[in-house]
């Protein structure tokens, strides 16, 4: 089943009367259950593409269909709802909220989705269990190692059962052993049915995926 | 959600203690100041409101024409009440003649106390809804009764039941205590009415009935309207009552002064008491507005700090906004979060501000001469506080809330988030606003004190030093004045003694009915008058310009005037000496001397034309004494007290110095000046807290830049200049706005004074230099610290 579709998508910035293209004529179909890796040199538009897919960023031309909805025609509010419902994000630098404990970081998306307190509790406990971080639940991010922080970041992205997990160089800040663990986890999640799109520099990590997309100067090659 | 938000906010506060302290302290000070002002405004607006008949009570005022000018006052002839009762009985529930509230000596056996009170007609007890502790309200119907307030009763009868006791009022009147009432509210025009004696008693003893007519405006007339009566309509009805009566009584002064009556409702007594040319032009309400505005401004200053500090740390929070948005937060939820953080801060600040208010109230009460307290039990108070907090929270929190929540997650997380140019622009505007307000307040304060100083230094025209007086309480003292004078003079420490009807520091009595050669027949003249015994002029050391002083050697001096220079100009006389002035039926007076103008009324006003009259008679009210040489005061006082007790054994010996009397002229302005200082200091303090915080952020933000500059060879002083420059420019801009603004307002404030200082340029320079110095000191701390940082450290931190 088709999860999302990008047709002739362009994104640019205006600079001194010139258009500088960040994304140029992107056409991409993603089926549910795929594990895609986006690769390319720095500045080729990998993260921009990921942000556009994740609806964190706008585009200037083209069409974007997500689960049959035309994202390019949607109002901000509906887009946010769509996003909240189906997409989870994982970052290179984890982006956990420093002032919140592990447990509270996990709970945050559920709060925004207005789950009841009892449900939230159960889901958080489940996640802590699944990622084997029950013992860390009352610690603050600074008290964790990088790998552990990224685990929490992934757990937070997954807690509301997204269909699509977007990861922007998830292992970029980790050592190789931690990186491998994370990639194994991704593989396992993918096997469980989560669609994953990751941005990566590493051929090794890209190999975990089922398909590789190469970008150069905003263009798919 | 809310609980979660508050939890995060609380952790945020704890984590950045210095920042939180600046934020909360600034807000708390601002809130405390506005709370104090709020209490004061509440007390002003609720003045007199504790009286049940608040809406129906009014005072009869009259507007008369003197010298072409309309003058409005409360004093009325004693006949007015009767006339109103006779002709308009169906409009009034009560019409009451009353004397003016003043101090009287109350004596019971050996106990003697001086209390302020009044002689009033019996209806006053119903009008003011007196709450009787003993006796009944209608006890005042008995012309030999007296009602005491609870505190007066306690003072006069510490251990006994006051009811039925016979006490003495002053020296001539006796009355029986027939009632004790609860003290009247302090926050009212009757707060000092601590005893009420029957008007009839005074009337009989002083024989007013026979002596006073429609032309003697010695009293006050209060009315209580029938419930629901239209005060404007009734006021219109009684308009000409005095004029008609005075005309038919044959007194020819009426048609000249053209008295017009009107009712002044109790709700306007306190705040709308000023009349100019017969029109009510406000009064204390101006001050209520002024301080209300100052209060709002101070609160705004504090809110601005909150906004500025929040947007300054927005770089730090941008990341949080980004993350929250990527994990599903909507914009509204973020706004809600930031607002709840603001409300938490406001709540904390409010609690602290209540503590500050409690600590500051005694001082503030002293400053404002009030007895304000926090009305804990009043639900309206809590409701207002809630509104106040919501308002403050919203003002303080809305900008950061809307600003921060609008960040785009993609750009803030990517780290390409610029240093929020828009926000720093707004921050500049807000800082300029803060310093403009502060500078206006500084300039205002300096100008007020300069004006007071200017008036204090105004040449008096007489010598007020070592001059004291005691009041004449009994006819015996008046009649035997010459003997008393001789005995007083036996002490070597006493230089001169003279009696007078008013004090030289306040010649409040004025007279009319004068005519002289060359007087414009249409002129309805009015002179201040001072009646005194021989030697008065020499005693106060006035400057004789022309002619001579009164002298025992000239037999005709009982029909002589000494006039001041203003009077000469007022009368249009070329050669005043020897001119004759006819004074109604009193006879023709010859002008024998001209003295230099003296400040005998408000030091801010123009000197009024004044006549000095030689007088040995019933008007004498004060014995003035000049003490010779410093250091003799105690000896002189002992002697005076001995003589006083010899001739007036029943009264308490009280005295006062003329220079102290004179100093009372400055009380109001000095109070105003102190309040202005207080608020100016607060405003500066809050503004400084603000830029202190801001400069910390600027220094922090530019750490890397400073590091690089240092590596490239920048000097410490150059860096301090670089970091302070922005704030200095902002403060200069503020001064540019503040100077013309304050010039305009202070000019209009000084318009009220005839004798006024100039707003000189040095005030503005002083304010400018002051503001700059304060800014540099505040900002310099962080600039200095940042500039001294080892560049290796600051660059490594990146």
UniProtKB/TrEMBL annotation, chain B:
This is FtsX-like permease family protein. The chain crosses the membrane at residues 21-42, 288-309, 334-361, 381-404, 425-449, 675-699, 711-739, 759-784. The keyword Transmembrane applies. Residues 20-240 form the MacB-like periplasmic core domain. It is found in: Cell membrane. GO terms for molecular function: transmembrane transporter activity. GO terms for cellular component: plasma membrane. PANTHER family: ABC TRANSPORTER PERMEASE YTRF (PTHR30572:SF4), MEMBRANE COMPONENT OF TRANSPORTER-RELATED (PTHR30572).
């Amino acid at each position: 089943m088709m999860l999302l579709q990008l047709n002739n998508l362009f994104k640019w910035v205006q600079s001194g009367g010139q258009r500088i293209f960040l994304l140029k004529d992107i056409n991409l179909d993603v089926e549910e259950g795929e594990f895609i890796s986006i690769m390319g040199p720095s500045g080729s538009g990998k993260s921009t593409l990921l942000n556009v897919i994740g609806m964190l960023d706008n585009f200037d031309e083209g069409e974007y269909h997500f689960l049959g909805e035309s994202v390019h025609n949607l109002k901000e509010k509906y887009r946010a709802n769509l996003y909240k419902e189906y997409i989870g994000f994982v970052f290179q630098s984890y982006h956990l909220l420093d002032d919140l404990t592990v447990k509270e970081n996990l709970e945050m998306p559920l709060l925004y989705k207005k789950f009841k307190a009892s449900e939230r509790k159960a889901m958080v406990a489940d996640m802590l269990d699944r990622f084997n971080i029950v013992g860390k639940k009352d610690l603050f991010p600074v008290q964790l190692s990088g790998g552990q922080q990224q685990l929490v970041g992934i757990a937070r992205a997954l807690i509301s059962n997204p269909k699509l997990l977007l990861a922007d160089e998830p292992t970029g800040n980790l050592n190789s052993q931690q990186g491998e663990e994370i990639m194994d986890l991704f593989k396992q999640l993918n096997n469980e049915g989560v669609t994953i799109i990751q941005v990566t520099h590493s051929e090794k990590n890209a190999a975990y995926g089922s398909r590789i997309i190469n970008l150069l100067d905003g263009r798919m090659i | 959600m809310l609980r979660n938000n508050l939890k995060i906010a609380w952790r945020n506060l704890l984590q950045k203690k210095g920042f939180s302290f600046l934020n909360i302290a600034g807000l708390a000070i601002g809130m405390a100041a506005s709370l104090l002002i709020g209490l004061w405004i509440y007390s002003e607006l609720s003045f007199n409101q504790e009286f049940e008949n608040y809406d129906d009570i009014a005072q009869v005022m009259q507007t008369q024409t003197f010298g072409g000018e309309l003058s409005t006052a409360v004093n009325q002839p004693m006949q007015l009440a009767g006339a109103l009762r006779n002709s308009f009985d169906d409009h009034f529930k009560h019409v009451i003649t009353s004397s003016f509230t003043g101090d009287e000596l109350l004596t019971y056996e050996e106990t003697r106390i001086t209390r302020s009170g009044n002689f009033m007609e019996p209806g006053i007890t119903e009008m003011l809804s007196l709450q009787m502790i003993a006796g009944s309200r209608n006890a005042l119907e008995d012309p030999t009764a007296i009602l005491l307030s609870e505190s007066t009763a306690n003072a006069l009868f510490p251990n006994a039941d006051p009811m039925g006791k016979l006490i003495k009022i002053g020296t001539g009147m006796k009355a029986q205590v027939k009632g004790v009432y609860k003290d009247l509210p302090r926050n009212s025009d009757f707060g000092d009415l601590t005893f009420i004696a029957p008007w009839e008693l005074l009337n009989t003893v002083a024989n007013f009935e026979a002596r006073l007519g429609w032309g003697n405006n010695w009293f006050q007339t209060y009315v209580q309207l029938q419930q629901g009566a239209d005060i404007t309509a009734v006021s219109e009805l009684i308009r000409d009552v005095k004029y008609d009566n005075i005309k038919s009584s044959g007194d020819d002064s009426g048609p000249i002064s053209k008295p017009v009556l009107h009712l002044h409702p109790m709700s306007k007594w306190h705040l709308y008491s000023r009349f100019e040319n017969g029109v009510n032009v406000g009064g204390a309400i101006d001050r209520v507005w002024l301080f209300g505005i100052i209060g709002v401004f101070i609160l705004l200053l504090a809110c601005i700090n909150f906004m500025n500090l929040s947007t300054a740390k927005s770089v730090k929070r941008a990341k949080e906004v980004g993350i929250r948005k990527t994990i599903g937060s909507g914009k509204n939820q973020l706004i809600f979060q930031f607002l709840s953080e603001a409300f938490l801060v406001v709540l904390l600040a409010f609690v602290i501000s209540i503590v500050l208010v409690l600590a500051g109230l005694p001082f503030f009460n002293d400053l404002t001469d009030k007895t304000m307290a926090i009305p804990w039990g009043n639900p309206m108070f809590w409701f207002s506080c809630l509104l106040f907090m919501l308002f403050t929270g919203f003002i303080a929190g809305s900008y950061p809330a809307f600003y921060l929540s609008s960040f785009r997650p993609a750009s803030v997380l990517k780290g390409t988030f610029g240093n929020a140019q828009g926000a720093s622009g707004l921050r500049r505007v807000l800082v300029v606003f803060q310093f403009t307000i502060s500078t206006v307040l500084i300039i205002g304060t300096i100008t007020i004190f300069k004006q007071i100083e200017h008036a204090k230094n105004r040449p008096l025209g007489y010598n007020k030093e070592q001059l004291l007086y005691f009041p004449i309480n009994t006819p015996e003292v008046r009649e035997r004045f010459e003997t008393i004078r001789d005995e007083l003079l036996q002490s070597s420490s006493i230089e001169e003694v003279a009696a007078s009807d008013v004090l030289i520091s306040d010649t409040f009595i004025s007279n009319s009915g004068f005519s002289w050669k060359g007087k414009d027949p249409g002129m309805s003249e009015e002179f201040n008058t001072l009646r005194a015994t021989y030697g008065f002029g020499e005693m106060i050391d006035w400057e004789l310009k022309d002619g001579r002083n009164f002298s025992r050697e000239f037999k005709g001096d009982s029909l002589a005037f000494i006039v001041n220079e203003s009077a000469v100009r007022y009368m249009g006389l070329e050669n005043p000496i020897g001119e004759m002035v006819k004074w109604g039926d009193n006879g023709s007076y010859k002008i024998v001397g001209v003295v230099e103008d003296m400040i005998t009324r408000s030091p801010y006003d123009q000197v009024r034309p004044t006549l000095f009259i030689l007088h040995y008679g019933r008007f004498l009210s004060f014995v003035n004494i000049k003490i010779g040489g410093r250091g003799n005061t105690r000896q002189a006082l002992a002697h005076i007290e001995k003589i006083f007790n010899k001739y007036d054994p029943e009264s308490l010996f009280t005295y006062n110095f003329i220079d102290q009397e004179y100093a009372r002229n400055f009380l109001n302005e000095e109070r105003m000046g102190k309040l202005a200082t207080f608020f100016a200091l607060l405003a500066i303090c809050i503004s400084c807290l603000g830029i202190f915080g801001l400069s910390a952020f600027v220094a922090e933000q530019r750490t890397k830049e400073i590091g690089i500059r240092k590596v490239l060879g920048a000097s410490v002083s150059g860096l301090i200049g670089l970091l302070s420059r922005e704030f200095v420019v902002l403060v200069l801009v503020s001064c540019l706005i503040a100077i013309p603004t304050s010039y305009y307002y202070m000019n209009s404030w000084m318009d009220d004074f005839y004798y006024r200082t100039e707003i000189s340029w040095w005030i503005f320079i002083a304010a400018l230099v002051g503001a700059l110095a304060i800014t540099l000191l505040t900002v310099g701390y962080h600039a200095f610290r940042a500039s001294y940082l080892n560049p290796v450290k600051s660059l490594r931190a990146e």
